[in-house]
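Researcher: Let's walk through a ligand-bound prediction step by step. First, I give you the protein sequence. Second, the SMILES string for zinc ion. Third, you return the three-dimensional complex as structure tokens. Ready?
Model: Ready.
Researcher: Here are steps one and two:
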Amino acid sequence: MDRSCAQCGARIPPQQGSARPRKFCVTCRPSRNRGNPRVIPMSESSEKPKSTGSGVADSYRRRLDSAGVLDTPEGSHVMLLASLLEDGMGSHTAAGAASLSRELRAAMESALRDVPGEPDVVDELEERRRQKAAGA
Ligand SMILES: [Zn+2]
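Model: Step three, the predicted complex:
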């Protein structure tokens, strides 16, 4: 009796031994005890978690928007990385996600660096204090 894969329709070879008959071919459902132990399970999982819209990209967009740099090249770069990270949730390798996160943080810092008004307030106060001290 021939079985065919419930997912791709490929013919499934006759079962050997007393194992339960397969519903899926080896390609669609790799044998669990034959997997490479070094492969991170989440990267080969066929049951990918549905994208719940984790809000990563959204939170970056809000932050960039409130800083007024959403339309800058740096802001666009941040959004690109943020959506890559969000789209790949659950399918990135751990190393891939980590390096993407680093890129994203660096891009965010660079995008916010030139925000007028915000970051230099402290320096400016210090500068005035120095000038006052020098003049006195
Ligand atoms: Zn199949």
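Researcher: And what stands out?
Model: The longest helix spans residues 94-113. Residues 43-51 have pLDDT under 50 and may be disordered.
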